[in-house]
């Protein structure tokens, strides 16, 4: 049972480390100067079209969310385990 405490401490430490890593979404493969779109008036450069929705950074790093899910799952398993085991 003592190993479970160490496992949870390791998960919490890992979650803290993941929360310190800045998250950057992958950049598109195609540079902006070669992006063209077909419109009613023919082919137009992307810069002349209306801008898309603004880019919003996620509030939490995906690794931190995964670590929290693991922590909650392990906690639920420990809380709901049978008393005889």
Question: How do the strands and helices of this protein lay out in sequence?
Answer:
Layout: H1 2-19, E1 36-39, E2 42-45, H2 62-79
Antiparallel strand pairs: 1-2
Question: What do you see in this structure?
Answer:
The protein is mainly α and 85 residues long. It has a domain at 1-10 and 60-85. It has helices spanning 2-19, 62-79, and strands spanning 36-39, 42-45. Strands 1-2 form a two-stranded antiparallel ribbon. A hairpin with a 2-residue loop joins strand 1 and strand 2 (42-45). The chain is elongated, with a radius of gyration of 23 Å. The model has no long low-confidence stretch (mean pLDDT 77).
Contiguous helical run count: 2
Instruction: Report the major sheet.
Output: 2 strands, antiparallel
The H-and-E topology, N to C, reads as HEEH
Mean pLDDT, rounded to whole units? Answer: 77
Q: Give the tally of β-strands.
A: 2
In short:
42% of the residues lie in helices and 9% in strands. The chain is mainly alpha-helical.
Keywords:
85 residues, mainly alpha, two-stranded antiparallel ribbon, 2 helices, 9% strand, elongated
């Amino acid at each position: 049972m003592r190993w479970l405490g160490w496992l949870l401490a390791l998960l919490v430490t890992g979650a803290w480390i993941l929360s310190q890593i800045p998250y950057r979404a992958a950049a598109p493969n195609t540079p902006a100067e070669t992006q063209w779109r077909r419109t009613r008036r023919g082919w137009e450069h992307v810069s002349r079209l209306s801008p898309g929705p603004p880019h919003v950074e996620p509030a939490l790093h995906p690794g931190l969310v995964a670590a929290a899910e693991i922590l909650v799952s392990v906690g639920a398993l420990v809380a709901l385990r049978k008393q005889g085991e």
